[in-house]
Design brief:
α3 packs parallel to α4. The chain has 2 domains: 249 residues, Metallo-dependent phosphatases (Purple Acid Phosphatase, chain A, domain 2, 4-Layer Sandwich); 189 residues, HIT family, subunit A (2-Layer Sandwich), CATH 3.30.428. It is elongated. The longest helix is centred in the last third of the chain and has 20 residues. The chain is of the alpha/beta class. Helix content is 21%, strand content 18%. The strands form 4 sheets. It has an 8-stranded antiparallel beta sheet, with helices on both faces. One of its GO terms (cellular component) is post-mRNA release spliceosomal complex.
């Protein structure tokens, strides 16, 4: 396999002697590199004299050097041909946009300029049309898996989401959304950018949705500082790379331990999904997510509607608790003053020490340990309570977040916490959970829409899961220790409810008369939505 040794650098800004002197020193010490890739501003506003020596051939770059185009009107004159050209011996302008493929098979996608703020786009800017055409040219390639390298001058907007800190750079405001869109689609193994006079090597991120898509390679985003900066920030990056086309597929998709969620998930989810209808002989793909009963010769329906066959099943009695249970409704331990609604199989109760006065629990009346263990009738009533609570909270300008921790608990408790709609979006909530999970080395994965937890966890499996009232779900299979208050901590954090002092229920439990008054108030407000009073 041909291993390519490459160098990438940030804004040169006309400091040609500085960058080429550094390259010569590195090659003298570490051996020859194949090429130097320059992102950001290659030319500066006062570099004419230094550049003239290279342009006339008096001096020569020590390595084949490939540069991106102008980022401002000031340096446009250095690039005579917008489609790319040789600027001097060993120094090549790649062009406005395109793909460079070397003889080794390495694919380098590039996009020159900054994102246009006006139409028509100036010659030193790119537009949505430029990005769309570059994407189309590559995505139309048969069996396209991604490119080896992506070169852009601006950072991609939001690249710091789910990641290590970018220091002083605010990645939610800095950079280009079009570059984010390009990176999300082209799935580069390395993405280099500059312009911010900062060095930032982001943790590698996934290019596939775990549990929904087959594993793909990761992307490493690296922003480089300006050449010769006085703060000694890194501006030159050396790396070795084997072209994707030459790699063993299993080796290519290996996930490093520090891999994070994709920072451009929103863009990927918003992309139009064009799914071909399944063939007559095929069943929909969703049938094959986590079909844990397959070895028993049965297929579990995945749409949640057909949990039985045409024969009515005998209702299975729930197991009996091995000792006192605080949540079995018939148990003397139940704090009945907190109960706000009782159905046939389930009941609602205010949470003791809730995150808010309307934080409630959905609980089975009988003794079930987790959602996975529920019989179809109980599950059906859980679904009805979820629908009623969604309607109730939406009428109050809120959305709910539901979570379950099937770990060190013996009776199912579905915690339902309302969050004001104007406080955060459902995407903000997911990001908060994923970000805090990553901080604690917890792998919290998004599971396919319209699938249920019973498809990803067998009875007895410890797990934690979050569900939004949109139906979106995040899941973690617990394999060791797990923070018992994790769900509450995320919701109480500054990113969401901003009440970190309420993360532990024991610190905010009220006196019994106050709890009873809160329960009466909730019962009164919930009454128009409570199906148990009508059924």
């Amino acid at each position: 396999r041909a291993v390519s040794r490459r160098l990438a650098c940030g804004d040169v800004e006309g400091r040609l002697e500085a960058i080429f002197g550094r390259v010569r020193a590195i090659q003298a010490k570490s051996g020859r590199f194949d090429m130097l890739l320059c992102v950001g501003n290659f030319f500066g506003s006062t570099c004419e004299a230094e550049w003239a020596e290279y342009r006339t051939g008096a001096k020569k770059a020590p390595i084949p050097t490939y540069v991106l185009g102008a980022n401002s009107q000031d340096t446009l004159s250095y690039f005579p041909d917008a489609s790319g050209c040789e600027l001097a011996e060993n120094i090549t302008y790649l062009g406005r946009r395109g793909v460079y493929s070397g003889c080794s098979g390495l694919q380098i996608a590039y996009l020159s300029g900054t994102e246009a703020q006006e139409q028509p786009a100036p010659a030193h800017s790119f537009s949505a049309k430029d990005v769309a055409e570059l994407k189309t040219s590559l995505l139309a390639t048969p069996n396209f898996r991604g490119v080896d390298i992506l070169l852009t001058s601006p950072w991609p907007r939001d690249v710091g989401t789910f990641a290590n800190s970018a220091g002083e750079i605010d990645t939610k405001k800095c950079g280009s959304k079009l570059v984010s869109d390009l990176a999300a689609s082209l799935k580069p193994r390395y993405h280099f950018a500059a312009l911010e006079k900062a060095y930032y090597e982001r943790l590698p991120y996934r290019n596939h949705m775990v549990l929904q898509e087959t594993p793909q390679h990761v992307t490493r985003f690296i922003a480089l500082a300006d050449v010769g900066n006085t703060s000694k920030k890194k501006y030159l990056y050396a790396f070795s790379i084997v072209p994707m086309s030459s790699m063993d597929p299993a080796e290519l998709v290996k996930q490093p331990q520090d891999v994070t969620e994709n920072p451009y998930r929103k863009l990927r989810k918003e992309a139009p999904k064009s799914k071909a209808p399944p063939c007559a002989e095929e069943e929909p793909a969703c049938q094959f997510f986590f079909d844990l009963n397959k070895h028993q010769g049965k297929k579990r329906p995945s749409d949640g509607k057909e949990r039985g066959d045409s024969q009515p099943k005998q209702a299975k009695k729930p197991p009996q608790p091995t000792g006192p249970c605080w949540f079995c409704l018939a148990s003397p331990e139940v704090e009945k003053h907190l109960v706000v609604s009782i159905g046939t199989h389930c009941y609602l109760a205010l949470a003791k020490g809730g995150l808010s006065p309307d934080h409630v629990l959905i609980l089975p009346i009988g003794h079930y340990q987790s959602v996975v263990d529920l019989s179809s009738e109980v599950l059906e009533e859980v679904t009805k309570y979820k629908a009623a609570l969604k309607e109730f909270f939406r009428s109050k300008g809120k959305r709910y977040v539901l979570f379950e921790r099937n770990y060190r608990s013996q009776h199912l408790q579905l915690q339902v916490v309302p969050v004001p709609l104007d406080l955060c979006t459902s995407e903000d909530i997911k990001e908060a959970f994923i970000a805090q999970a990553q901080e604690q080395q917890i792998e919290l994965l998004e599971i396919p829409e319209h699938s249920d937890i019973a498809q990803v966890a067998q009875p007895g499996t410890p797990y934690f899961y979050v569900e939004l009232d949109t139906g979106e779900k995040l899941f973690h299979r617990i394999r060791g220790r797990f923070p018992l208050q994790f769900g509450r901590c995320v919701l109480a954090s500054e990113a969401l409810l901003a009440q970190p002092q309420r993360a532990d229920w024991r610190q905010c439990a009220a006196q019994r008369p106050e709890e009873a008054a809160q329960a009466r108030a909730f019962r009164r407000e919930f009454e128009p939505f409570d199906f148990s009073l009508r059924d």
